[in-house]
Known about the structure:
The complex is a heterodimer. Chain A has 10 helices and 7 strands. Chain A is α/β, with parallel strands linked by helices. Chain A has one domain: Thiamin diphosphate (ThDP)-binding fold, Pyr/PP domains (Rossmann fold, 3-Layer(aba) Sandwich), CATH 3.40.50.970. In chain A, strand 2, helix 6 and strand 3 form a beta-alpha-beta unit. The termini of chain A are close together. In chain B, helix 1 packs parallel to helix 7, helix 8 packs across helix 12 and helix 9 crosses helix 10. Chain B has 2 domains: 163 residues, Thiamin diphosphate (ThDP)-binding fold, Pyr/PP domains (Rossmann fold, 3-Layer(aba) Sandwich), CATH 3.40.50.970; 139 residues, Rossmann fold, CATH 3.40.50. Chain B has a 7-stranded mixed β-sheet with strand order 3-2-4-5-7-6-12, sandwiched between helices. Chain B has a 5-stranded mixed β-sheet with strand order 9-11-10-13-14, sandwiched between helices. In chain B, strand 2, helix 2 and strand 3 form a beta-alpha-beta unit. At the A-B interface, helix 5 and helix 6 of A face helix 3 and helix 5 of B.
Amino acid sequence: MDTEVRRIHRLKRKCVEVRRDIVEMIHRAKGGHPGGSLSAVEILTVLFFEVMRLRPEEADWPDRDRFILSKGHVTPVLYSAMARRGFFPVEELTTFGVPGTRLQKHVDKHFLPCVEVSSGSLGQGLSIGVGMALADRVDRRTRNIFILNSDGENQEGQTWEAAMAAAHFNLEKIIAFLDNNGLQTDGAVGDIMNIEPLEDKWRSFGWHVQRVDGHDVEQIISAIDLAKGTKDQPHIVIADTIKGKGVSYIEGKYEWHSHSISDEEYGIALSELDAAERELEEQEQAAWRS
Amino acid sequence: MAELNIEKPFGKTLAKLGDRYTNLVVVDADLQRATETSFFQARFPDRYFNVGVAEANMVGISIGLALSGKTVFCGTFACFASQRVCDQVAIMAHVNANVRLIGIEPALSSGNNGATHQGMADLAMMRAMPNMTVCDPGDATETIGIVEYMLEHPGPAYIRVPRGKAPVVIDPESYAFQAGKAKRVREGRDVAIIACGIMLPRAITAADQLALEGISARVVSMASIKPIDENEIISAAQDVGCIVTAENHTILGGLGSAVAEVVTQDCPVPVIRVGVADCFGEIGPVEWLAQKYGISSSHIVAASRKAMEAKSRFHYSSR
């Protein structure tokens, strides 16, 4: 098996590990945002374990790539990725949502300085990313600014103010992901307030637009590579995802935007994730044999 | 009072200091002449960003710049710099972003722009936001002093800036602004007038009028609304025994409230608040509006008499 295939397998197994953390955290905390955390697993796993230039032991390394969680409620996926990448001890994940924890339910720079910015009030991350990219331009830094937006955030006016500005200033170092899981708190995005046609909208705002399967790590990696090679425009990768991906009873259900996980549901989720891991192992072994 | 004015002290100081502070950047929302940042843009075009009519985005971008090590000045009319972007300012304050949000033409100083442009509650809103420093300079000296101070002291801040010409009340030779420090501009023993912003010259005019009646008024400029100079307030209460506050702002939650909070807790004496009653404004020349909405020097004079009356009753009943 060549290193490329091995690398992809490693990422896929990491995704299962992150999903297990998410379920564990929300079960233990008796609440959280499972749907949108599980839909963004592949995006964050690729960013934190494959793409971003980071130094976990020196979190404020000036040349690090930056990641902004604009959809600030999906902290379980961010905390898992950061802990597994070495920013803080994995054991600390058990404190998620506990009074006094650094792992607040909405991401909080005050408690956890290794995150770039606090969020939770939706629609602000892109603007903050624009500011960071402008600062890098003034300072002649060449790092990338990665931003994770939700589909619901396309309903926030400020998102489009920032979209306009990023294109106006030709901020090619911005690579935004749109976790297009199609569901928001009250129902389907298309029913609550339609945001389509997404590609046309972002293209007309001057962005370089790509669309990928948001659960396909190879497509995500390729999209980032293409973005890095495309100059003079900010980039958005519309990642079509399934809300709750990987846990059967959460998948595709808007009610699970914010929800607790019972002991029984936790058991089911773990057995499903175990099965997913076994399947990956079998695929790996098949790849070895071939 | 001698009529000495300085033209655009805010914008000119900012542009002048751009050389020394290479980290200084400016973000604008299509109001560069009103915010006087056009001077900065002319000298430092690479460190100036105009985002168009998008105030929320302006604050968001400023947060991003600040989190990348920049000292940011951004601004718009005071009404929008508070009301329109309150939620963005909450993030800015929460992450302690080094952003100085400028509110131009606060409250009735907006004059002919009318009610929608007269942000009456900006001080109240910003004062209630944790981590924020809040300033309302009373003259050109304080305005320049605040800009200089803000370049040396990081953290989120909201600064009211009077547009265009500003009077010189305080001698710049012996002045340096400090957050949490008031400036006593006149001594007096019968009533203490604590003023901020455009009310400082009015407070001095009022003190002059009171002097003609034989009333001795202390005048304090409270440009730093938050943190507030508690010692100076307590000293006014103890030494003088009654206080008048004067602000170009709603009577709710601004300077008067801040002073009353200190006085009621530490040294209860009568406090009469001069400010805009709980209402919206309308168009008109600033002085005409000041008369109509209760923030002219004659209102300060009337409030001073009332405060002294209350003081005598207060002393009688405390005996």
